[in-house]
Design brief:
This protein is α/β, with parallel strands linked by helices. The protein contains twelve helices and eleven strands. Keywords: Signal.
């Protein structure tokens, strides 16, 4: 009888042991598969969200990058335009996306720094993204009409600081880089933000036309918008916002060379994902972008857009965005532009 009871008790113990072993084996097999699946990234096409409409500068930059990335990622990169609210709609869509590396963002100064600086009720902050790399910068240039009485930066600065000229400058809209750039210059010269009067237009090109027609005295805007007028002699370039001279425009001094590095305000673009990307995804994108920006075909394409290579790896890009966004927010608050 004791023997019978002994065998009866043993069977449940053996059953429990078998179940535990099976469970352990299943868990082990799942764990062993997880790294393989992660290392398999990417295994399907990737969406690159451009937070602006087709045909704009960021759209064209996104398509240039998407054209070379498949060589290094091994998958197609499909540009998807999600415009609205100055880039905020598309940016927020990426912020809210599953962090699996299949929905990424073509970052830009507008959506990732200026819009948050100017708008208090956005559903995201600049730091809400997993930044991968900065790919390029967009030079801005300070220009005056070819017949202006000041033909050098030094003469222009003297005219501006004298307070006798009631100078006006054209912008592509309030709160735009073309508006904030001259204000930064005035600040560095120890002048109030109203030392020159902004006149707002709807594009760099419209501001340029207004300057050529004598409506404004100077402008600081996208080099791509001003390049033809510079090359044909209709306008004079006084200072470039890039840290180094721009190829083809080496005769225009940089603000840095003039002792004003803080005025080196440039547009920028790059790549980011939603917060919480797996390390394997960050590495795959980081490696691919680092190789893509060395591609001669990519460099040629972005220079046609008026951009210059401006690669920053992840850690440096994180720090750059934080610093850039912070200074624009402080400026917007000081000027009462933050709504």
């Amino acid at each position: 009888m004791i023997v019978t009871m002994h065998h009866t008790a043993a069977r449940p113990r053996r059953r429990r042991s078998a179940l535990a072993a099976a469970a352990f084996g299943l868990a082990a097999s799942v764990l062993s598969l997880a790294p393989a699946e992660a290392q398999d990234y990417p295994n399907k096409p990737i969406r690159l969200i451009v937070p602006y409409g087709p045909g704009g500068a960021t759209d064209l930059a996104g398509r240039a990058l998407a054209g070379v990335l498949p060589e290094f990622l091994g998958q197609a990169v499909v540009v998807v335009n999600v415009p609205g609210a100055g880039g905020a709609v598309g940016a927020n869509q990426v912020k809210e996306a599953t962090p699996d590396g299949y929905t990424m963002l073509m970052t830009a100064i507008g959506a990732n720094a200026l819009r948050p600086a100017l708008t208090s009720d956005l559903p995201y902050e600049p730091g809400d993204f997993d930044y991968i790399a900065r790919t390029q910068i967009n030079p801005n240039v300070l220009v005056v009409p070819a017949n202006a009485p000041y033909q050098t930066y030094e003469d222009f600065a003297a005219a501006l600081t004298s307070g006798d000229n009631d100078l006006k400058y054209g912008t592509a809209g309030p709160g735009n880089v073309t508006h904030l750039g001259p204000i930064m210059l005035m600040s560095e010269l120890g002048l109030p933000s109203d030392a020159a009067t902004p006149v707002h237009y709807d594009s760099d090109g419209a501001a340029l036309l207004a300057m050529l027609q004598g409506e404004v005295d100077f402008a600081q805007g996208n080099l791509a918008s001003f390049a033809s007028a510079l090359q044909n002699g209709a306008i004079k370039g006084l200072a470039m916002t890039t840290p180094e001279p721009v190829e083809g425009f080496e005769d225009i001094p940089t603000y840095t060379s003039l002792g004003l590095p803080e005025v080196s305000i440039v547009g920028w673009r790059g790549v980011a994902g939603p917060p919480g990307l797996p390390e394997e995804v960050e590495t795959a994108w980081g490696d691919a972008v680092a190789k893509a920006v060395e591609s001669p075909s990519w460099i040629g394409l972005i220079r046609k857009l008026g951009d210059e290579p401006g690669y920053l790896a992840k850690a440096d890009y994180d720090a750059f965005v934080e610093k850039d966004a912070s200074r624009y927010r402080a400026m917007a608050e000081d000027l009462g532009l933050r709504k």
